[in-house]
Structures
1.
Amino acid sequence: MIIDCHGHYTTSPRQHEGWRNEQIEARTAGKPPPPRPTITDDEIRQSIEGGQLKVQRERGTDLTIFSPRAAGMGHHLGDATTSEAWASACNDLTRRVCSLFPKNFIGVAMLPQSARVSPKNCIAEINRCVNEYGFVGINLNPDPSGGHWQDPPLGDRYWYPVYEKMVEYDIPAMIHVSASCNPTHHTTGAHYLNGDTAGFNQLMNSSAFKDFPTIKFIIPHGGGAVPYHWGRYRGLAQDAKLGLLSELMLKNVFFDTCVYHLPGQELLAKVIPVDNILFASEMIGAVRGVDPETGHHYADTKRYIDRLPLSAEEKAKIFEGNARRVYGRLTATIEKQSAR
Ligand SMILES: [Zn+2]
């Protein structure tokens, strides 16, 4: 089985994002938000069959761990109340995709975060998404301000209410920012990779893994700059007397393969142990074009992994085994959803 651990519902029916605009406009005008729009099962089917499902079939993958559109989370917009209503609407829609295509999609929750609002307010949505919707993970935004970094670093106790829930439910968090509202940081070209890199570094300089020895984080987009600069982080850990970086981080931190060229994948697989790499493509995501050098989509990451000098067993870990290990509830959820 080939499990893509990083996909977003980027093709949702138009009225979903339309409602979001109306919700924010209403708040600005001091009015209550309009009722949520009607979205039919057929509209959802259409958006998936011509989109993510088609791409799964074309690229030969089986299952996508699926969450709401990351850039659309927009935690910097509105306040805690608007974030709550929007996260709920996004998670509801993601759940409907997983119900309509139970063999192809398993859900991960977006959280109702807001800058400088305690993430304690995310607990109810985590409970709902795990217990009622069967979701197997969360996306945690380390910078709900959208590029201004107004919250404490991820190692701070500020985040511990979420970490307690992650351990209780055995769900990992993908550290994933949303859109940037800071024009110096392009959303997918800079802010995403900054978020990945900063998130890793924040956890490295903290005692979070001493306090939560079984907690698991996935750093997306190939780990941002981390694998490329592994030597720098090893050296920083050494200078700060934090011990060996691999011992400090690799029981708790995993990297996905959303790296859009072969040399990058080769570096990732050379630097990071196979046990810490999870297959992902983030389709249909930031980079949608075809690479003229290869004639294939940049985001068709399976092609790169297929070409890595690894054994079949090692590739099976990247494609399937590691995801089942990191997402503690995944295997049971696959069995449950396949039986439907
Ligand atoms: Zn993503």
2.
Amino acid sequence: MKSFDLRQFRVITLEDVENAVRAGAKELLVQSRAILTPSAKDAITAKGLSIKGGSCDVCASTGGGCVSCSGSSASSSAPTASEWDKILNSPEAEKIKEEIVAVGKKLWMRQYVDGNGGNISYRIAENAVICTPTLTSKADLKTTDMCLVDLDGKQLAGSAARTSEILLHLEIYKAVPEAKSCVHCHPAHATAYAITGRVPITCVIPEFEVFIGKVALSPYETPGTKKFAETVIPYVKKHNTVLLANHGIICWADTVTHAEWFVEVTDTYCWTLMLANQLGSPITHITPEKNDDLLELKKKLGLPDARHDITDLQECALCDLPEFPGGIAVVPNPISGGPAIGGSGGASGSDVDAIVKSVTDAVMAALGSK
Ligand SMILES: [Zn+2]
């Protein structure tokens, strides 16, 4: 088997793997605790390459390249500044930085950020996160502004100073292994809920049920502090969206673009509920049975929802959010049967089926394009 020696590198990028492939390698020799960037890992899997490394004193594995504990140990042989620079300037980091710049513009154009507010991050390796700098409008971001920090918030690379709110993102990365990107901002409608101590009701709009569902509300703490960052810990495993009391919102996802989508879906939903509330008529709800279809779809897509753990959805107490009684919309009158969608007086079952199908198609298309 033809081997390609990458043992001189602590950080292995896609470019290194491609060089090995071009040289006809079937096996990569790597040093123990080498850091492989996500694209490098993907390329290794796609090309069917095997990895051979020295025994790792962290996990005691031998010959496996020890991808799983890459960079996660505080060892005396931690990567050097130039090795972290290599990560921040790798081809995949450049793509991520461009995505962050594009998402920053979207946040600003949708008026989700003002002044230098909001921040965006992406976890590029086990213990390395790319993030936006402090004191910069999200409309004016440049790829060269981006910073690289470890999971304790220590800046590893980048000339600009990191955002002071990165600690909030880092608590999410530590708590949720699936979280690859976080977007934090101050969209007016979602923030209106956050300053009144309310979360939006559920079981109303299919897109919101599938992408977001139950939103959490974390207690107020001074922004930028460790104590503030830790307020989200109890919620983030089962919620991809958390309203931050008297502050704004944070969403996590598998990509930067998807995390920004979740902000959009939540803010538009909050806005829609406010408008509907002004009409004065009760809001119609999707029936528990039909909402169960959406939750099943959500489960298949691997999206978190606190309601996945509830086995009996027959009683639609879910819409009332009992722990947050301030839900703004009116719940249908149970005595009259209510104007629930799929129930008597509401939209027909086939209408709801059509809605569920269109949401399914949109979600599948979105996932196929990432
Ligand atoms: Zn903020």
